[in-house]
Amino acid sequence: MIIAALIVAAGRGSRAETPLPKQWQPLGPARVADVTLARFATHPRIGPICMVLHPDDMALAPDHPGLILAPGGSTRAASVRNGLDALADHAPDLVLIHDVARPCVSSSVIDGVIAALAHGPAAAPALPVTDALWRGAEARVTGTEDRTGLFRAQTPQGFHFIAIRDAHDKAHAMAQTDAQTQGTTEAADDVAIARAAGLDVTITRGDEANIKITWPEDFARAQRIMGSEMKIRLGNGYDVHRFGPGDAVVLCGVTIPHDRGLQGHSDADVGMHALTDAIYGALAEGDIGRHFPPSDMQWKGADSRIFLRHAVGLAADKGYKINNLDVTLVCEYPKIGPHADAMRAALAELCQTPLDAVSVKATTSERLGFTGRGEGIAALATVTLTGL
Predict the structure, then answer these.
(1) Which residues does residue 135 pair with via DSSP β-bridges, in sequence order?
(2) What's the predicted TM-score (pTM) here?
(3) Which residue spans within the chain are E strands per DSSP?
(4) What is the predicted pLDDT for the residue at 185?
(5) C-alpha distances in Å from residue 197, one per residue of 160, 165, 286, 301, 336
(6) Does residue 123 contact residue 34 with C-beta atoms inside 8 Å?
């Protein structure tokens, strides 16, 4: 069964009072849209993912392999319809439609919606209203309302794909032909569209943590929720390469002229190897030799960027990003200081990490041991991964 996710991210979110629309505002180490996308990208049952963006925001789209982009429309319903059209080529059986401003949605909420779709055409999470309800005007209570049977709707709202696509097409056709039904295309959510088409909608269990960022103070609230559930992994790596014939060494992606070169199966970038092993270690995925065996001649003389990109990509596939990294090179020569900033820049780009979260430094071993005798270079690396 193919289960697609459709993340609606075309709104402007003016109530959040932010310089950019709220989906592009930072939420911890990433943006709101990145965090929300990760919730679905790391779910084991979710297949194709489509994100609907305002046409002006296409350049801000998350850099995620296989992410389908669709342009937003003049209304939320129009945006969803565009997203459904973009997913049609992938022929999903089910689709989960989610507001980008709900970055704290849990796997259990997603699983509950998917499970309910085995027994009906539509399902959505909600929480029963437990507070007293008032009517008011001019800062005075003018009446009360019965809260029996009332629920607070959440997303993702799930549907059999063909059923919800047909429902949106019907709503769109009605709006085109009858001005009196214009409000149909401006329904509050997709449950309203589904019910207008006669679909039964199952209510699944919502979550108080599944908040929708609407007001300025909601960013701090979401951050607190995320902080209580954020996964943190720490890894370290160590590597050594001996000197041999050559006229340059490659360290952390930077070529440095030297009277000797480093020997190794690949380009012998000892700093990048230690960092790559640190990432693999944090993921409990072994070391470089496990993923790129030295017995395989295709890696002879290979650029170590290949190894590091693979480790970073593997972390992303598992729902992690590099929060910060620190590499220490141990050698007498060459001198690292003049090249440290270039190394930091190279690693920041490869690891998709801000420059101020990347450290490259050097030390000597006070002329003790093989590094002190100038026989080779050692490197140590530590990396912190954060995930949801």
Answers:
(1) 143
(2) 0.66
(3) 3-9, 26-27, 30-31, 46-53, 68-71, 94-99, 122-128, 133-137, 140-145, 151-153, 157-160, 201-205, 231-244, 248-251, 254-257, 261-262, 320-330, 358-363, 376-387
(4) 47
(5) 13, 11, 53, 62, 67
(6) no
Q: Are 319 and 283 in contact (CB under 8 A)?
A: no
List Cβ neighbours of 387 (8 Å cut-off, separation of 6 or more): 38, 42, 230, 231, 232, 233, 318, 319, 320, 321
Mean pLDDT calculated for residue range 107-112: 96
Nearest to 203 by CA among 116, 93, 118, 121: 116
Lookup: tokens for 306:
């290949």
Residue type, 380: L
144: tokens are 């009360």
Please, are residues 155 and 204 in contact by the beta-carbon 8 Å criterion? no
Cα 148 to Cα 132: distance, rounded to the nearest angstrom: 10
Which contiguous run of DSSP H or E holds residue 32? helix 32-41
Q: What is the DSSP string of 210-237?
A: -----STTHHHHHHHHHHHH-EEEEEEE
Query: Which one, of 236, 252, 348, 229, lies nearest residue 305 by Cα?
Result: 252
- pLDDT averaged over every residue in the chain: 93
Task: Find the helix packing angle between 340-351 and 305-317, rounded to 10°.
Answer: 40
Residue 296's pLDDT is 85
What gap in Å lies between CA 245 and CA 262, rounded to an integer?
8
SS3 41: helix
